[in-house]
Amino acid sequence: MATEQTPDTHPVKSDDRITVPGIMAAKGRRKLTMLTAYDYCTARWVDRGGVDMILVGDSLAMVMLGHEDTLSVTMEEMLHHTRAVARGTQRALVVGDMPFLSYQVSVSQAVENAGRFLKEGRAQAVKLEGGASVLKQVEAIVEAGIPVQGHLGLTPQSIAKLGGFKVQGKDEEAAKKLVDDAIALSQAGCFSLVLEAIPAQVARRITEAVPIPTIGIGAGPACDGQVLVIHDLVGLFDRFLPRFVKQYDTLGRRLEEAVSRYRQEVESGVFPGPEHSFGTIQ
Asked: Which of 92, 161, 192, 252 has CA 20 to 30 A from 41's CA?
């Protein structure tokens, strides 16, 4: 269906593009912002909002495809959505989330799939979950010239091992392991770390222990930045709302109301009106 085009009111110069070195340089200077996006239109609006990074998260399995967890999404599906987001993004750094079993099997598999995110998905970086168990993969991917964002704490691809979506690092032994893993990931070459669902005190310890930015999601205010799922932020996903989410709008309800008004106007003959119709034959 054709629609009238409107000019882009937020033109972006090529030198305004957020880069990996720029993200790393922000630590200690300013707070970083990151949101998810999974399609072209959403990416355009999120990018215009001025966030530093857009994550094409494997959370799309749940909020876009209706799966119960993130394990079912495939590389091909992730690349499909990453390409769409990249086409809609002018300024933010696009990070592709490596799905379950796309990097765990072998180092060579990890490098190849990470490369596909840049070559086919047009992302500028990849994210993968895990600590000591993925250090070899991180080192090899970085050695191949591909920026890597780490992910510690609640790692959704490991929910079977973790026993569900639960807060991590709640005792000193677990907290120390998170700190050690964070240091190891930074030494392996990660440019930033996502810290999910861990006590704020532990996130502060990690943030102070590593020279790279930490991006929190349910990890308190001491992190160098924050990330949320866009569908949670604007109220589009109604199956559940994590405790750590602040909902800034209720677009789902507004969408439902708009659809209902449309249906009522079509049924009553109000729409389309003369202003929505073409003229008579000459």
From this structure: 192
Residue 14 marked as a ligand binder: no
Structurally, what CATH architecture does the domain formed by 14-250 represent? Alpha-Beta Barrel (3.20)
Q: What is the pLDDT of residues 17-60, one digit of tens each?
A: 999 999 999 999 999 999 999 999 999 999 999 999 999 999 99
pLDDT digits (tens, 9 = 90+) for 227-276: 999 999 999 999 888 889 999 999 999 999 999 999 999 999 999 999 99
Q: Which helix (H) or strand (E) holds 60?
A: helix 60-63
Residue 192 labelled as part of a binding site: no
176 annotated binding-site participant: no
Q: Is 59 annotated as a binding residue?
A: yes
Residue 245, exposed/middle/buried by CB under 10 A (0-12, 13-18, 19+)?
middle
Instruction: Tell how strand 148-153 and strand 125-127 pair up.
Output: parallel
The pTM score is 0.92
Q: Which residues are catalytic?
A: 196
Q: What does each C-alpha distance from 152 to 68, 109, 175, 185, 212 come to in angstroms?
A: 21, 21, 11, 10, 14
Q: Which long-range contacts (CB under 8 A, 24 or more apart) does 220-225 make?
A: 223/195, 224/26, 224/27, 224/28, 224/31, 224/32, 224/192, 225/26, 225/31, 225/32, 225/33, 225/34, 225/52, 225/192
